[in-house]
RNA sequence: GGUGCCAUCGCCAAGUGGUAAGGCCGUAGCCUGCAAAGCUACUAUCCCCAGUUCAAAUCUGGGUGGCACCUCCA
């Protein structure tokens, strides 16, 4: 298994801290709004990673946090006159449902900020005690970046006087403009959390470091976790700050391997809330099967920037369709348990820093071979079983082709339409048997008008939604 | 301004020193009552310039053009 380490900037062979085991931590969503395609991409990438690691006989412990304490949440709660928990519960639930729709499994551990406060307090106290953090007279707690000689080594930034962090966190009580808040005291009372440092709320970076320490870190290893992942934008300042907190409060560095996934852009522009061009997952799921979105978002290498457009999405669907058509041809057969050469190669491709492109090329090749064999020598039972087993392997490893193939091709069609189509198909069948092709073609046109395509096969006639 | 990434067929996209995977689209053919699906065949020398090397899309230098981060952000 090879992983591109985005801090060392090179592909490295993956060697776990503990033999046979992997700890993976990924920065999850802040639950104050609907998930967009970018959240989906990130979740998908690390979902695939866990599958590939597992297929390499590694026992993966995967944690992804839910940030349910945040200024934006508080702001929304005030604006909508709701409880914070109502908002965070709502979006957490929506997130889970949408992730499930694109085939993303739940992580093994899903810590919430609200449930990790004690771990955060502990870490803060350690940092204060060791001189890496300080309290201001306003009651804020800041991380003292000057106290960490390794600060900025992660993102390889150069500290300059024009540091932009100053612009935003302009508290004059900070020792250094680069210092970041671990605890922000709030005086108004209502929407705060109690702590040994007074009422307030934690800084965003703190929760990840604290959760990792609490849920994943082993005391005697050089790194808290094997792999830490997240979106490319998180490298600085988020991961830099996380790394500093962990480094200064424990005896290990944060992660042995860092993985950052590329961005999803729309029409060449970054999708972001401030630009107002977010494409929400829930909207995409109304129009497309979640698995199509999964296939599309995963079809480009995870580190590349991804430019979303519906034409490419349609192309991705066509490719996924081919998997399902083969599945349809072999429907009802049970797989055998042999490991085929195809499966070995597929895993090999994905084990090379998740080279999905090569994997897809292998799949297309397998699909062609199988179809060709089925066209010419349709009776070969062993070959059919082998193909089914290959398809099952693709399902397991990539999550493609997991649905019933007939239902897959009927995505979004209501029962009324389906039965109307069925009626017309019966009539067409009768006309065909009577060799009344004029009538059968007329009926076909009528069926096609429902936005489906029709295919006559030896096993009968099937329709697919276009 | 600082830092970093990228530039491969009409489109999407692998390949990171040994002579360009795959998909979509297109064309031709097989199959089909006709279609659809499936199958077969055909289509690029890798942004530009210079250099290193027996050999470069792949390394180095210089251009040009995109993009990202430096502020909450997947």
Topology, element by element:
Layout (H helix, E strand, L loop, with lengths): L1 E4 L4 E4 L7 E6 L10 H19 L3 E6 L6 H10 L3 H18 L15 H13 L3 E3 L5 E3 L21 H4 L11 E6 L14 E3 L1 H12 L7 E9 L3 H15 L3 E9 L2 E3 L2 E2 L10 H7 L2 H9 L7 E3 L1 H20 L11 H11 L4 H21 L4 H18 L6 H4 L6 H19 L3 H12 L3 E6 L2 E6 L1
Parallel strand pairs: 3-4, 3-9, 9-10, 11-13
Antiparallel strand pairs: 1-2, 5-6, 6-7, 7-8, 11-12, 14-15
This protein binds one RNA strand of 74 nucleotides through helix 1, helix 5, helix 7, helix 10 and helix 12.
The largest β sheet comes out as:
4 strands, parallel
**CATH homology superfamily of the largest domain:** HUPs
What would you say the CATH architecture of the largest domain is? 3-Layer(aba) Sandwich
Stretches where pLDDT is under 50 for at least 5 consecutive residues are: 161-170
The total count of helices amounts to 16
The N- to C-terminal Cα distance equals: 39 Å
Give the total of beta strands: 15
Amount of beta strand: 15-25%
Secondary structural class: alpha/beta
- DSSP helix fraction: 40-55%
Mean residue pLDDT:
92
Name the CATH class of the largest domain. Alpha Beta
Question: How many domains in all?
Answer: 3
Short description:
The chain is an alpha/beta fold and 466 residues long. It has 16 helices and 15 strands. It starts with a strand and ends with a strand.
